[in-house]
Design a protein that fits this description.
The structure holds 3 protein chains of 3 kinds. Chain B is an alpha/beta fold. Chain B is about 30% helix and about 20% strand. The N and C termini of chain B lie far apart (about 50 Å). Classes of the chains: A alpha+beta, B alpha/beta, C alpha+beta. The interface of A and B includes residues 163 and 169 of A.
Chain lengths: ~550, ~160, ~100
Amino acid sequence: MLNTLVKAIAPNMYRYDEFDAQFVGERVNQFAGQVARRLSGELTEDQFKPLRLMNGLYLQLHAYMLRIAVPYGTLSSRQMRKLAHIARTYDKNFGHFTTRTNLQFNWIKLVDVPKILRELADVEMHCIQTSGNCVRNVTSDQFAGATGEEIEDPRPLAEIIRQWSSLHPEFVFLARKFKIAVGATETDRAALQWHDMAVQIVRNQQGRVGYKVMAGGGMGRTPYIAHVMSEFVQREDILAYLEAVLRVYNQDSRRDNIHKQRIKILINTIGPEEMRRRVQREFEELKRMGTLQLPREELDRIAAYFAAPKFETGLSDAMPDAGPDFANWVKTNVHQHKAPGYAIATITLKTPGQVPGDATSEQMEAIADLMDRFSLGEVRVTHEQNLVLPHVKKQDLPAIHAKLKELDFASPNAGLITDIIACPGLDYCDLANARSIPIAQKLAKRFEDLDRQHRIGELKIKISGCINACGHHHAGHIGILGVDKKGVEFYQLVLGGSGAEDASVGTIMGPGFGEHEIGDAVERVVDVYLAERTDGERFLDTYRRIGMEKFKAAAYQGAAAA
Amino acid sequence: MTKLIKSGAYAQDNFSPVADDAPLPEGAVIVSLARFQKDRAALLARNTPVGVRLQSSENPELLGADVNHFALVALEFPKFRDGRAFSWARLLRTRLGFTGEIRAVGDFLYDQVNYQHRVGFDAWEVPDHFTLEMFNRALSEITNVYQPSTDGKKTIRELRAALK
Amino acid sequence: MLTANRLRDGDVLYRKGDGWVLMLADGEVYGDQASADAALAAATSELARNEFVAPYLFEVRDMNGKIVPVKEREIIRAAGPTVHPHTGKQADHLHA
């Protein structure tokens, strides 16, 4: 594919200084040493496993999988091109964007990993703590810095949390993984309440900006929505507060049953009130000690990296007229930007029939070009396995759309029924019970008709291949959980979950459906919604109003005994 | 066989471990928390050093006001995955103001030594093949740190500010 | 049958005699529990060679003369991802 040479633009995001570069470089050397010690036998697999996990390396069904951190979902074009290069050079020419806004490669060789990490370090990327029982990638709102809804850009705080949690000596051998998200809007695009810990930037009654801290959300075997730990933490206190939560978790979590070791279990066992009390005790002590206080200058210093780019003025704020395909795409995939004349464009990696969240190296290169040409060198990864060009001029939207059509990434379906989240599932994952990707592909094809999709409206389907719930099925309006029934793949339906600010845990409908029945079952569920809904109700609203009964009756009618 | 590394050098371990049901010998002894709670008076009355070995589920706050009577607190890693002792060491040094020896015992990795050092461990019971050279290397693999800890090491933020 | 992953590159292996092969069709089938257990024990004792990791046994059956895994997971592991038919052993085999 011929590309005209596009000049790479460095977007406004965090840039490594010599300390950051040295840190990552030393970490790469450390891991290279660990790989060598593993290959020589000095480390057994049991000893090596937690070390390689903390560098993002899994052993999966077919090969090693490497998970690369994309902090708060932000990538520069230079980084995107490097990912494309790694896909070509060390993998099979494609990568997968995950539900924690990271990027996974599925065909990695252990012996290549030190080299890959060095290449990533060249573009200020790494795989540190993308797995393991430690603080994972800090995620945020994909519209950060572009939406007028936010109190302020949440990413500076996310970056501060990222640094504070990197190789934190007390918290690298937690009871289980620990996922943190940061948001700054009422509309929650980062699923804060589903996280082990989340920070929402808020304003108190005096108009002062501070942080609401929540903890104890989580997916997996036992899903929970987070509890509020503090309605308002002062800016300067935030790291002390977060450390207090982690300390209580590290000290008090169970260690005897791997299924009961997330912080959600601790909080729901001792109760949120008791949890707050324990956290408060640690917090007050830390505050007195003073070493974790976050000075305003530091917050401002980091925030300066993320300063709003120089938006052009005097641009037309009218949406161009470029035909019906374009208009359909704008309807779902284009959102309002804070700067007049600009827009936020969502690239759904969900063309019906495609593997959700996958991109080939050619597509990555082309997106890098789009980033440079049209989005000030920047893209965001979303937890719904899509990409966002955060700063595009409205007048450029038709050209962007045309290019996306060439890439087969122009599906006008953001938030619609074919915008399906699916984990890699049994096709790739060692932990899976059932395949999820083919289910997503078939469902998307089934509902492909755009008029029908618009009739149905907002409907989030999320598919997990096992109870670990990496597909976030508990938060799906329609969630699908793959199970193994005597060696055969079955799929349970879960209804009424939400990952937005109206967070809720979905309810399991009943016994699973076979691979060839699940599509019909979903269709019947959708038909019930269409029949029962009142004006303006989304699927989720109708479900919340009328409950499970009618959906269940329809789904099982006609299904073979399961 | 194990050996002791303390304050960056090989050291003689002068403490005799005492089983819960065994009589207390002369000299420096290490007992379990349960044994200490049972024989508290006798142990506190000794004029030789007393150490306590805590299991990973035992919060050092259980030592109560007696904490600084101990010359040694050994924190157990039953399995290297169990990272509670990182918090216990920190707690001992800060809230409890413990100034004695904090010793890492049990199943821990070379790759954990640096973290242990940061949170307040100053002694390690290591397998025979674990050399001083390895120990020093473990402490030097990552030069700078992002977050403050018990070791008081300057953070990257402080280093950055100092450059200005 | 007995399978494992090669340490260096994660490639899926199948036990044959004292060694390993890449394709399930070339692997050894153990007709009874005793010989299967013995194979696993032998492989486990070889872990210290640091050539492979995570050996385990899985069931296969004879389907019209072809040896096929019982579980879907092992079928996919032997062939490759169903959603990327140009990758994995299914693609290698075509070129073999």
